[in-house]
């Protein structure tokens, strides 16, 4: 971030903080960061002034690497000569074409020639684009290669080329040719060239992201590549590749020849790197990305060094450094995709103003989209709370407002789709620009350009930590931090087992006395004084968080000065850690405040859960007299604004700035926050010695390793999670880097590392034994892992309900066969099943009617199904019920879990491999089936699921040892019917079993069977057929509206 940009953001935040009206945050990351320059030399902590090889900081290593690299500079004498000859005062003068040379930059290349464009202001008759043959490079004795983008050419004279304007201006014709062919229209060809100045190149590892073959010839057209620090992914054509690459086309690592363009310093680059232009050029497209001193790829060749991931102790130094740089290149690919998605989601619309209040505007817009794919990608960017920037729609306009998305809606519109959004905008001033007038024009409905925004500062820092080989440099140090980093990278060999007496530890620390054998093993590894990295494999319900926080409490007592940072990718997991530590500290007799930090979005989305740890929040900590008594008046005002924002506008609360203020004045040895927030605020915690990462399955390896570089005193790391549950969401990342480039879960690397100490928890303390045995059979036995039920324990909350019947007496497993059709959504790629929705609502109403007191979670494998059921639950005002997707359920637990699968048989003759279907993902299914404590209700086309090889088949076969598959229609009639009874342990109603005979006899063609039924629990006893009635208000009893719309 430049100083200018930093100043603008500071001004913007100052303005927003002083407004009393409804305001918005500057962005998802900026509001939680110290808004300083993100350059490496200023953004990172400096460790003590000691020898570099023994105790170096992120900043010192990065600066040393950068100064040694001499990245992409011209040869010194060439640069000086060009500066003297090519960029003097003559650039601003009209140049006589025949007598003087004019300086041009190569903006587009091909095999035989290149296109150049003037660098500065030229004479009126000088062409905008000139064709230069590659042979001019061979004539220049200083030229070392063909001309490439960024090279500088002094053109003396040129001859006009023939072309037809077709009643268009030259500018319009250039734009038309660019749109049609991606090439610039050259109006002249160079006939005399004075000199050529070529940028020096350097070789770096990169990644081939994609390639395209010619449909007619079947030959390679281009390969898209990316490297760390590259402005954007670039298409490299066959003539820019070495011969060994064209013979073996794969999405593999490659060697990139890169240059850095420093003159002119400000450019814009096309999507895919097809051309570059001076930033002030009138040509190009709205999708061009403006850049400062960009690094470009001019050619590629085969990578001669072996790439290895995960890392291991047998790798050579060269292999380590190259592999490390490739992990940085993968992060660069994520940055490029993020920026590309944002650029493609920009809209030019006429706003529909709904409300104006001072410097605040509430507005709506509508936007037509042609295809469903485009709609889904567009909506992924334009989510609720997405930060935006707004300006008038003309080229010279600057942003005059910022805001965020309040609501969005998508629908089918004729042959396309309509996307609607409601936005909140606040005035944003700009330096040396009349932004206020522009803002007033927006109030009047002037056409505007709206750009979604996102901070990539953390991603850039992560990329640089790998591209500069920071991790391997730290790992080479003979310090506790160096040893831990070496372990985490996977470069260390097996360590010695701790020489602690666990029996004595249990006697000294009551919190450790409650740990089981394998939990105690983890504690021993974390409590000795040897630098370690520990990975604790922990299936659901085995007490991984319980164990981790017991260790934290014991550490606080054993090491009174130790600073501990507890992280998790999920906000819910952070809350759970706080609650577990709270209990552990009571047992250990510790009375000391801890601190929990959350982003504004986290506070909004998980308000209810976060309020359960209110005494540990920053808003509570800043009320302490110990803190406020040390503050000056200016800081007291900042704190006061922060507390008000936490209540009224959580997204405005500057968590990072106030946390820094607090930690400068008072001591907090234990701090909780999400991994994402840690990456933004990591320089606030330089005293961290012990790092805890919970729910590590969803923590990317590169993100976690990058975060550790900010803690110079680090000596212990505990990573705990389950390798068989949900991992990092990779579908939004470029396909080529989803695996083997450090963007997936860190567990994969830690589990294979020799140097990581490993423990495995195998006893589930959370769920009914039958649920545990089914989950074990489905997810863990195939991997030779055990998951044992707890001995004893009371899991009979549902079974003890006398007026609620289960299909098999004494079994908490309720398997309901429901074969109603699965329907794809019109405006997204999710699906719903209305029949399964109805069955779910009937069960929920029955549980509400009999007064079930436990927690209930409806877990859906499809997000659209969760939305549909959630809407029905809200309409009926059913209390205490949450409807979540399986992805959102990781880290949660519930007394009663209702799993809705949505999926049904699509046809008997299908040949599709369903193992890759969304609903068949083993990790997702494992999460869904393992959340329930006292009971599990499973709704789906169970015979269809059972036919699928994998987790569904194994789980259901084991479940059928304890229960039966019931017909959903018959069971819903019987579950709270006073006439229902058990016959030989099976539930019967009026002499008929609820068992689904069609499931057992193999009749699968049930889609046409009636799937309707009563909506009210009072109708079940007397209902003779299932009839799904229209929605009716549960408050007044009338039809045509629901309770939340009722005026009575």
UniProtKB/TrEMBL annotation:
Residues 1033-1048 form the CCHC-type domain. SUPFAM superfamilies: P-loop containing nucleoside triphosphate hydrolases, Retrovirus zinc finger-like domains. It comes from the Eukaryota. Keywords: ATP-binding, Helicase, Hydrolase, Metal-binding, Nucleotide-binding, Zinc, Zinc-finger. GO terms for molecular function: 5'-3' DNA helicase activity; ATP binding; enzyme binding; hydrolase activity; nucleic acid binding; zinc ion binding. PROSITE patterns: ZF_CCHC (PS50158). Signal peptide: none annotated. InterPro entries: Coronavir_polyprotein_1ab, DNA2/NAM7-like_C, P-loop_NTPase, Znf_CCHC, Znf_CCHC_sf. PANTHER family: DNA2/NAM7 HELICASE FAMILY MEMBER (PTHR43788), HELICASE WITH ZINC FINGER 2 (PTHR43788:SF16). This is CCHC-type domain-containing protein. The lineage of its organism: Eukaryota, Metazoa, Ecdysozoa, Nematoda, Chromadorea.
């Amino acid at each position: 971030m430049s100083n200018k940009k930093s100043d603008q953001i500071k001004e913007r935040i100052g303005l927003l903080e002083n407004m009393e009206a409804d305001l918005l945050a500057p962005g998802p990351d900026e509001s939680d960061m110290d808004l300083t320059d993100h350059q490496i030399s200023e953004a990172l902590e400096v460790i003590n002034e000691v020898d570099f090889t023994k105790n170096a900081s992120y900043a010192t290593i990065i600066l040393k690497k950068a100064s040694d690299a001499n990245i992409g500079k011209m040869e010194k004498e060439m640069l000086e000569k060009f500066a003297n000859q090519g960029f003097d005062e003559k650039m601003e003068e009209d140049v006589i074409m025949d007598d003087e040379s004019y300086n041009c930059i190569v903006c587009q290349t091909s095999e035989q020639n290149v296109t150049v464009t003037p660098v500065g202001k030229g004479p009126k008759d000088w062409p905008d684009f000139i064709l230069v043959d590659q042979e001019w490079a061979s004539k220049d004795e200083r030229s070392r290669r063909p001309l490439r983008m960024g090279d500088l050419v002094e053109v003396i004279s040129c001859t006009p080329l023939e072309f037809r304007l077709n009643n268009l201006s030259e500018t319009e014709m250039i734009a038309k040719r660019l749109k049609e062919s991606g090439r610039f229209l050259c109006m002249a060809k160079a006939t005399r060239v004075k000199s050529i100045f070529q940028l020096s190149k350097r070789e770096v590892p990169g990644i081939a992201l994609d390639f395209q073959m010619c449909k007619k010839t079947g030959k390679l057209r281009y390969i898209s590549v990316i490297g760390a620090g590259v402005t954007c992914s670039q298409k490299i054509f066959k003539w820019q590749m070495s011969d060994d690459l064209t013979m073996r086309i794969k999405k593999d690592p490659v060697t990139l020849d890169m240059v850095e363009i420093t003159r002119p310093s400000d450019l814009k680059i096309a999507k895919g790197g097809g051309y570059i232009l001076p930033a002030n050029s009138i040509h190009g497209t709205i999708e061009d990305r403006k850049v400062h001193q960009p690094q470009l790829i001019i050619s590629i060749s085969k990578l001669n060094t072996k790439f290895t991931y995960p890392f291991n102790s047998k790798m050579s130094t060269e292999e380590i450094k190259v592999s490390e740089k490739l992990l940085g290149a993968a992060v660069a690919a994520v940055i490029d995709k993020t920026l590309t998605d944002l650029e493609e989601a920009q809209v030019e619309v006429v706003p529909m103003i709904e409300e104006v209040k001072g410097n605040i505007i509430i507005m709506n817009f509508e936007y037509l989209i042609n295809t469903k794919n485009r709609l889904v990608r567009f909506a992924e960017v334009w989510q609720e709370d997405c930060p935006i920037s707004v300006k008038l729609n003309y080229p010279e306009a600057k942003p005059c407002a910022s805001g965020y998305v309040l609501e969005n809606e998508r629908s089918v519109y004729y042959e396309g789709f309509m996307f609607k959004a409601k936005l909140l905008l606040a005035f944003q001033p700009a330096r040396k620009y009349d932004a206020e007038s522009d803002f007033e024009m927006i109030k009047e409905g002037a056409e505007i350009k709206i750009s979604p925004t996102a901070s990539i500062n953390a991603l850039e820092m992560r990329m640089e930590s790998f591209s500069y080989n920071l991790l391997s440099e730290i790992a080479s140090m003979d310090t506790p931090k160096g040893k831990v980093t070496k372990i985490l990278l996977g470069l260390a060999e097996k360590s010695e087992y701790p020489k602690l007496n666990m029996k004595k530890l249990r006697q000294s620390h009551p919190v450790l006395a409650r740990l089981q054998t394998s939990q105690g093993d983890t504690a021993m590894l974390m409590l000795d004084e040897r630098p370690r990295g520990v990975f604790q494999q922990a299936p659901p319900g085995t007490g991984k968080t319980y164990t981790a926080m017991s260790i934290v409490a014991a550490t606080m007592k054993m090491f009174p000065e130790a600073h501990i940072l507890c992280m998790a990718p999920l906000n819910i997991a952070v809350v759970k850690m706080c609650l577990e530590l709270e209990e552990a500290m009571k047992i250990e007799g510790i009375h000391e405040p801890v601190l929990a930090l959350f982003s504004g979005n986290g506070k909004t989305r998980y308000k209810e859960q976060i309020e359960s740890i209110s005494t540990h929040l920053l808003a509570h900590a800043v009320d302490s007299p110990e803190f406020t008594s040390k503050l000056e008046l200016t800081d007291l005002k900042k704190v006061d604004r922060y507390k008000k924002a936490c209540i009224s506008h959580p997204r405005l609360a500057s968590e990072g700035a106030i946390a820094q203020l607090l930690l400068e004045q008072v001591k907090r040895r234990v701090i909780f926050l999400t991994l994402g927030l840690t990456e933004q605020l990591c320089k606030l915690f330089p005293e961290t010695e012990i790092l805890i990462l919970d729910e590590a399955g969803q923590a990317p390896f590169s993100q976690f390793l990058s975060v550790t570089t900010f803690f110079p005193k680090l000596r212990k790391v505990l990573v705990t999670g389950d390798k068989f549950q949900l991992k990092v969401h990779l579908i939004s990342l470029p396909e080529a880097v989803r695996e083997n480039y450090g963007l997936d879960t860190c567990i994969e690397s830690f589990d294979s590392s020799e140097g990581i100490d490993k423990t495995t928890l195998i006893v589930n303390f959370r769920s009914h034994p039958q649920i545990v045995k089914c989950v074990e059979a489905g997810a863990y036995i195939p991997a030779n892992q055990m998951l044992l039920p707890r001995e004893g324990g009371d899991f009979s909350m549902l079974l003890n309900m006398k007026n609620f019947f289960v299909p098999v007496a004494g079994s908490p497993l309720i398997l309901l066969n429901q074969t109603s059709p699965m329907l794809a959504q019109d405006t997204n790629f999710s699906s719903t099943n209305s029949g399964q929705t109805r069955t779910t609502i009937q069960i929920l109403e029955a549980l509400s009617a009999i007064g079930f007191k436990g927690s209930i979670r409806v877990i859906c494998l499809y997000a659209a199904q969760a939305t549909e059921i959630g809407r029905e639950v809200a309409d009926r005002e059913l209390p205490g019920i949450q409807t979540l997707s399986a992805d959102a359920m990781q880290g949660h637990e519930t007394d009663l879990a209702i799993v809705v699968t949505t999926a049904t048989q699509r046809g008997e003759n299908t040949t599709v491999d369903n193992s890759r279907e969304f609903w068949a993902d083993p990790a997702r299914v494992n999460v869904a089936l393992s959340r329930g404590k006292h009971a599990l209700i499973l709704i789906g086309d169970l015979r269809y699921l059972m036919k699928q090889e994998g987790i569904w088949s194994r789980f259901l076969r084991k479940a059928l040892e304890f229960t039966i598959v019931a017909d959903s229609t018959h069971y819903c009639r019987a579950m709270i019917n006073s006439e229902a009874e058990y016959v030989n342990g099976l539930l019967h109603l009026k002499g008929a079993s609820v068992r689904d005979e069609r499931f057992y006899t193999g009749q699968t063609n049930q889609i046409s069977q009636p799937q309707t039924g009563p909506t009210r629990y009072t109708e079940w006893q007397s209902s003779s057929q299932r009839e799904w009635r229209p929605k009716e208000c549960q408050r007044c009893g009338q039809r045509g509206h629901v309770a939340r719309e009722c005026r009575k």
